[in-house]
Specification:
alpha/beta, UDP-N-acetylmuramoyl-L-alanine:D-glutamate ligase, five-stranded mixed sheet, 15 helices
Length: 394
């Protein structure tokens, strides 16, 4: 039997409510169009070999700590680490989110680093995706462990994405039309695309004022790892999002580590310590952050829980955690896909983060973007996955 973990935990009542409200979700998703930009990478995902028994049998390096200790031990000398390819796929915020949304039935305008003058061979087009390529993709080497992932990336093409790059590939009029036709506007990973603020400023000045019904859209952002960005950059981001909020609802999605980093860069906010036991700093962490940020939806997600903070309310949903994830690169993109679709299909904020949790939970167990029937199946078994650490989903 599930018991509340804190005063904001609405997991049980949300589960009971959402299982009664899923009947129209599939048809509602199919009415959604999303404008997604602007990155794109070739992701090569690997496991590392800790011990090889013979040519066919080997033991996987399970933890990041084991990898870190190995690097420390060979410091000052050299070492050889064997990697085994799990899969190679086109990745990044925009492609991952587009793939996740289109598999569920939404239509997407994917505007990103997909390859020029022709699409990169690794990109597999989905039937519901409309593609607009603005530059070549970056390349990521992803090392996946049970307790996290390490992304080693060549960002060179992504660093040059700006308003000029975008409008050289797509006219301002066309961008306006695509945005006008979209219910969801999604952008990431902010920390890794240095000129996103500039592009959004042009949206605010050159595109939004000429469009109608902006208040019915959702503008959402995945911030990504902000350790490389200055405190002033983060404060500028928040100012831009507050400007966008005057046109339409904004959702900012961060993981637990990113939430802690934001708290260290904002005034009048208690710093979130991710190492405090029981995730105690996260119980009200999002609530306190959004009092300062002041947008429609501030979301924190982790392998164990997700919270969503509106301007007046705050909710916690426990995740169906597994200590043995098969894939982690792209998990966050599946989470915010579920939340954005849920909110855009008129689910409540707490129902929406449960949907996001479910999409993520399926993805880390299978490495696939689930379809609607798979999502529905997991949601109906959601409490089973909370009560038992089950790494499998068929």
């Amino acid at each position: 039997m599930y018991h509340k973990l804190n005063q904001y935990d609405v997991t049980l009542e949300t589960y009971n409510k959402i299982t009664e409200n899923l009947s129209n979700f599939k048809s509602d998703i199919e009415k959604i169009t999303a404008f997604l930009g602007f990155d794109g990478y070739i992701d090569s995902l690997y496991s590392l070999v800790e011990h090889r028994i013979d040519s066919k049998e080997w033991r996987r390096m399970e933890s990041m700590k084991t990898f870190g200790d190995l690097l420390i031990n060979i410091s000052g000398s050299s070492g050889s680490i064997e990697r085994v390819l799990k899969k190679r796929i086109f990745g990044g915020f925009a492609p991952n989110t587009s793939r996740a949304m289109s598999t569920l039935g939404a239509h997407t305008y994917l505007v990103g680093a997909l390859g020029v003058p022709k699409l990169n061979q690794f990109y597999e087009r989905q039937i519901n995706e409309e593609l607009y390529s603005i530059t070549n993709p970056g390349e990521t080497l992803g090392l996946e462990f049970d307790d996290g992932k390490i992304m080693i990336t060549d960002f060179a093409p992504i660093l040059d994405i700006d308003w000029k790059t975008l409008t050289q590939s797509i006219s301002i009029e066309k961008i306006g039309t695509l945005i006008d036709n979209s219910k969801i506007l999604g952008f990431g990973h902010w920390a890794l695309v240095p000129n996103l603020n500039e592009i959004w400023h042009h949206f605010i000045l050159d595109i939004f004022p000429s469009l109608n019904n902006l208040e019915s859209k959702l503008f959402f952002v995945d911030i990504a790892d902000i350790r490389k960005r200055k405190s002033s950059d983060i404060k500028d981001l928040i100012k831009v999002l507050q400007e966008v909020e005057t046109f339409m609802p904004v959702m900012l999605s961060v993981n637990d580590q990113e939430a802690s980093l934001i708290s260290k860069n904002l005034d009048n906010v208690k710093i979130i310590d991710p190492h405090n036991p029981g995730f105690v700093d996260y119980i009200e962490g999002g609530l306190n952050l959004n009092k300062e940020i002041n947008i429609s939806y501030f979301v924190i997600h982790s392998p164990h829980f997700a919270t969503i903070s509106t301007k007046n309310e705050h909710y916690w949903i426990t995740e169906g955690f597994t200590s043995k994830p098969k894939y982690t690169v792209g998990a966050g993109d599946h989470f915010h896909t579920g939340v954005a679709l849920g909110l855009s299909c008129n689910f409540s904020p707490m129902e929406s983060i449960l949907i996001g949790n479910a999409l993520t939970a399926i993805f880390v167990r299978t490495g696939i973007s689930p379809n609607y029937n798979q999502l529905k199946d997991f949601i109906f078994r959601y409490l089973d996955y909370i009560n038992e650490d089950n790494p499998h989903f068929s």
